[in-house]
Design a protein that fits this description.
Layout lengths: L1 E4 L10 E4 L9 E10 L2 H8 L18 E9 L12 E5 L3 E3 L5 E3 L7 E5 L13
Antiparallel strand pairs: 1-2, 3-4, 3-8, 4-5, 6-7
Length: 131
């Protein structure tokens, strides 16, 4: 699957179209087929390396795109959620997430076609308002 990502920090020129394995929803997660992703100031800080020291030991590539909208297309095993496959959702995703062991892992961003996400996401309503 294709994504926009980076292996090194710097200006916009470090962004590349890269191939990644397709993710699947794990326990406590849903998978979102991303229809739209936004790059916000936090993504720019990630790309430029402002937070590089916090990412020491977290392997790349880093995929920006914290804000996404799309459709749930897979629900992970044991996930307790009121979401269903086919539901339209929006989410703010973190590029790295803490593990139970207290380390950080690369969780990817929204500039990939599908993305695992927590089982609790926002649902857009008519007029774009959030419940």
């Amino acid at each position: 699957m294709r994504a926009v990502g980076l292996y090194e920090f710097g200006g916009p020129e470090v962004l590349r179209v890269i191939e990644l394995p397709e993710p699947h929803a794990g326990p406590g997660e849903v998978r979102v087929r991303v229809h739209a992703a936004a790059v916000n100031p936090s993504d720019t800080l990630l790309r430029s390396g402002v937070h590089a020291s916090a990412l020491a030991g977290v392997p790349g590539p880093y995929v920006p795109g914290m804000d996404v909208a799309g459709v749930v297309d897979e629900i992970g095993p044991g996930t307790v959620t009121d979401l269903s496959v086919g539901d339209r959702v929006m989410a703010m995703l973190l590029p790295v997430t803490p593990t139970p062991e207290g380390t950080l892992e690369n969780s990817g961003g929204g500039l990939r076609g599908v993305r695992g996400a927590p089982g609790r996401l926002g649902r857009p309503r008519a007029g774009g308002r959030q419940p």
